[in-house]
Amino acid sequence: MIRSMTAYARRQKREPFGELTWELRSVNHRYLEAALRMPEELRAIEPVVRERINQRLGRGKLDCGLRFQAASELAAEVQVNEPLVGQLLKAAEQLMQHLHSSPLPTVMDIMRWPGVLETAEQDFTPVQQAAVALLDEALDDLVSAREREGERLAALIRQRLQAMREQVARARERMPQVIQAVRERLSARLAELGGALDRDRLEQEMALLAQRLDVDEEMDRLNTHLDEVERVLARDEPVGRRLDFLMQELNREANTLGSKSADSETTAISVEMKVLIEQMREQVQNIE
Question: Whole domain around residue 19: which residue ranges?
Answer without folding.
Answer: 7-74+124-146
